[in-house]
Design a protein that fits this description.
Distance between the termini: 48 Å
Number of domains: 2
CATH superfamily of the largest domain: NAD(P)-binding Rossmann-like Domain
CATH architecture of the largest domain: 3-Layer(aba) Sandwich
CATH class of the largest domain: Alpha Beta
Order of helices and strands: EHEHEHEHHHEHEHEEHEH
Strand content: 5-15%
Bound molecules: NADP nicotinamide-adenine-dinucleotide phosphate
Number of strands: 9
Structural class: alpha/beta
CATH topology of the largest domain: Rossmann fold
Helix content: 40-55%
Number of helices: 10
Length: 283
C-alpha cells in the first residue's frame, strides 16, 4: 500500500520557532528593543478574531510583542488608511498585518498598498508582489511563502514539474504561482472560469488548492504520485481537497489542519523578526 509523505507544517513551524526565539533574544540583548507586530482587525468576523489571536500567541511564544488594533465594522477606507499611516510612522512597530478580509465596503487593496514595504511582513502590498515576482529583495506573501518553505523543507522537486494552482487571489493563488514559476515549474493557474478543470488537474505533478470550497478537488482528478498542497481552510477543519480519498493516490500531502496554516503564521513572525533585524542594523 502507498504510504504518502506527510508535509507536516505544524512540526516544521515549531522547529523554526526555536530559532526565532534565539533571534528575538539576540535583538533584545544587543539593542534593548523588542520586535513588535501590529495586527489590525476590522469588525468581529469570528474566523478573523481567531486568526489574529493565533498570530498574537505566536508572537508571545518567540518573545515578541503584538500590538492589537481593533476597529469597528463601520470603519471607512480613509480611517483605516490613516491608522496604517500612523503605524508606518511608529518607530516601535516592525511589522504590520491587516487581517483579511476586511468588511466589503472597504477598499482592501488600497489599504494593503498603504503599508510601508519595510513593514509589509504579510507581503500584501502590490509593490511587494511585483518585487517578489521579479525576484528583487522583498518580503513575501505569507501563505505562498509558507507553501514554498514546506515544499523545500521536504525536498519536493519543483523544477520542471507541471504544477496546477487552483485559485488566483492576490494573497494566495497569484503569488504562489509566481513563486513556483521562479523555481522553474511549469505553472497552470485555474479559476472559476477555467474550462475542463478536471482534465487539467489530472496532468499535474503538484496541485495547489486555494479555492475556499470544502473538498472541492476530487480524488478522481488526482494523478498517481501527485503532490497535494491544500491551502484551504473551511468550516469543520476541512481543506479544499478531498484528502481522505485522495491520500492513497498521492506521494505527499499537506494535512488540514497542521499543514499550510501553522507555517503561514510562522512566515509572518519570521519576516517581522527579519524586519526588526534590518531596522536595527543586525543583518
Ligand atoms: P478567494 O479570494 O475567495 O479566492 C478563491 C479563488 O478560487 C478565486 O481565484 C476563484 O476564482 C477560485 N475559484 C472559485 N470557485 C472556483 C471553481 N469552481 N473552479 C476553479 N476556481 C474557483 O480565496 P483565498 O483568500 O485565496 O483563500 C482560498 C482558501 O485558502 C480558503 O479556503 C482560505 O480559507 C484559505 N486560506 C488559508 C490560509 C492559510 O494560512 N492556511 C491563508 C489564506 C487563505 P475567480 O478568481 O475566478 O473568482
Amino acid at each position: 500500500m502507498n504510504t504518502p509523505l506527510i508535509l507536516d507544517g505544524k512540526t516544521l513551524a515549531a522547529n523554526i520557532e526555536k530559532d526565532l526565539k534565539v533571534r528575538v533574544q539576540r535583538i533584545k540583548d544587543i539593542t534593548n528593543e523588542t520586535p513588535v507586530l501590529a495586527t489590525i482587525i476590522v469588525g468581529n468576523d469570528p474566523a478573523s478574531v481567531t486568526y489574529v489571536k493565533m498570530k498574537g500567541n505566536a508572537c508571545t511564544r518567540v518573545g515578541m510583542k503584538s500590538l492589537k488594533i481593533e476597529m469597528p465594522e463601520e470603519t471607512s477606507t480613509e480611517e483605516l488608511i490613516e491608522k496604517i499611516r500612523e503605524l508606518n510612522r511608529d518607530k516601535n512597530v516592525h511589522g504590520i498585518l491587516l487581517q483579511h478580509p476586511v468588511p466589503g465596503h472597504i477598499d482592501e487593496m488600497a489599504c494593503f498598498n498603504e503599508i510601508d514595504l519595510l513593514k509589509d511582513v504579510d507581503g500584501v502590498n502590490t509593490n511587494t508582489f511585483g518585487r517578489m515576482t521579479m525576484q528583487l529583495d522583498s518580503f513575501k506573501c505569507a501563505t505562498p511563502y509558507s507553501i514554498m518553505t514546506i515544499l523545500k523543507h521536504y525536498n519536493i522537486q519543483i523544477e520542471g514539474k507541471d504544477v496546477v494552482v487552483i485559485g488566483r487571489s492576490p494573497i494566495l493563488g497569484k503569488p504562489v504561482a509566481m513563486m513556483l514559476l521562479n523555481e522553474n515549474a511549469t505553472v497552470t493557474i485555474c479559476h472559476s472560469k477555467t474550462k475542463d478543470l478536471e482534465d487539467i488537474v489530472k496532468r499535474a505533478d503538484i496541485v495547489v488548492a486555494a479555492v475556499g470550497k470544502p473538498k472541492f478537488v476530487k480524488a478522481e482528478w488526482i494523478k498517481e504520485g501527485c503532490v497535494l498542497v491544500d491551502a484551504g481552510y473551511n468550516q469543520g477543519n476541512v481543506g479544499d481537497i478531498d484528502l481522505e480519498n485522495a491520500i492513497e493516490k498521492c506521494s505527499a500531502y499537506t494535512p488540514v489542519p497542521g499543514g499550510v496554516g501553522p507555517m503561514t503564521i510562522n512566515c509572518l513572525i519570521s519576516q517581522t523578526v527579519e524586519s526588526a533585524e534590518r531596522k536595527l542594523g543586525l543583518i
